[in-house]
């Protein structure tokens, strides 16, 4: 059992500050994502800023309410959708007769700038993957680690260890008796 209270405590100062700051950080994250092909930035940096904006909201308004608002299926959809888009664009270049992510095929076939292929990968693929992974990792770490195991998985849990006392023999993890 831990010696500290880790429950959420509302702070009007933090909540007000986040209400003011969050729209700006979200806008800046989107700017970095959409403007990244022509200037410093891109899908990774913009996706990180968008993901951290959600983390900031979770710190201000509570992790569990934010987790309920942003369901796991949405986060899975962001990451999976980004991977599918990234792969589809790369395979599309193969279908046009080039190599994976060879954007010069866009100029040869559709007479458009190859830069638009890179923009599509950064905006629709990488930014979704990065923001979804950052938010998912945060929620996973916020849920904590529980060393207890369901019965039948072998080994003993730390709760079983404490109940038996310090002098009792400890079974090896994965030992099925």
Structure in words:
This protein is 66% helix and 0% strand. By secondary structure, it is an all-alpha fold. The protein has one domain. Helix 2 packs across helix 3 and helix 4 packs antiparallel against helix 6. InterPro entries: CPA3_antiporter_subunitB, MnhB.
Give short descriptive properties of this protein.
7 helices; 177 residues
From N to C, what is the helix and strand string? HHHHHHH
What is the alpha-carbon Rg in Å?
23 Å
Question: Which term fits the overall shape?
Answer: elongated
DSSP strand count: 0
Structural class based on helices, strands and sheet pairing: mainly alpha
Q: What percent of residues are in strands?
A: under 5%
Q: State the domain count.
A: 1
Characterize the biggest β-sheet.
none
- Give helix % range: 55-70%
Distance between the termini: 28 Å
Count of runs of 4 or more consecutive helical residues: 7
Question: Whole-number average pLDDT?
Answer: 82
Could you list the spans in which at least 5 consecutive residues all have pLDDT below 50? 154-165, 168-177
Organism: Natrinema versiforme JCM 10478
Subcellular location: Cell membrane
Membrane topology: Multi-pass membrane protein
Keywords: Cell membrane, Membrane, Transmembrane, Transmembrane helix
